[in-house]
């Protein structure tokens, strides 16, 4: 287990070993997620974005974007 201490400004230094392992460099955006009483921190890298792409599916198997487009087309058709 690796630990770090939060500064008075709320900043947290990510230990070098983890920065190197996860390719975290200056300017890397981080995703903070809270679930089940835990906080996770994930680097927002290209690999991370690729890994979560398309995970939001609606009940009918469409992606969230596809569902929104479908609803928009239906609303346009109703207005005619």
Describe this structure as you would to a colleague.
It is elongated and about 60 Å long. The chain has 80 residues and is an alpha+beta fold. It has helices spanning 16-21, 46-52, 64-79, and strands at residues 30-35, 38-43. 36% of the residues lie in helices and 15% in strands. A two-stranded antiparallel ribbon has the order 1-2. A hairpin with a 2-residue loop joins strand 1 and strand 2. The chain has three helices and two strands; from the N terminus they run H-E-E-H-H.
Write the layout of secondary structure elements.
Elements: H1 16-21, E1 30-35, E2 38-43, H2 46-52, H3 64-79
Antiparallel strand pairs: 1-2
The computed structural class is alpha+beta
Per DSSP, what share of the residues sits in E-state strands of 2 or more residues?
15-25%
Mean pLDDT: 82
* Structure summary, number of beta strands: 2
Shape: elongated
Q: What value does the Rg take, in angstroms?
A: 20 Å
> Numbering strands along the chain, what is their spatial order in the largest sheet?
1-2
State the major sheet.
2 strands, antiparallel
Number of helices: 3
> What series of H and E elements makes up the topology?
HEEHH
- Roughly what percent helix? 25-40%
List low-confidence stretches.
Answer: none
Distance between the termini: 62 Å
């Amino acid at each position: 287990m690796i630990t770090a201490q939060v500064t008075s400004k709320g900043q947290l230094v990510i230990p070098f070993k983890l920065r190197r392992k996860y390719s975290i460099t200056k300017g890397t955006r981080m995703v903070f997620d809270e679930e089940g009483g835990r906080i996770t921190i994930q680097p927002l890298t290209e690999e991370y974005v690729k890994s979560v792409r398309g995970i939001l599916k609606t009940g009918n198997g469409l992606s969230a974007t596809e569902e929104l487009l479908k609803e928009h087309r239906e609303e346009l058709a109703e207005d005619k």
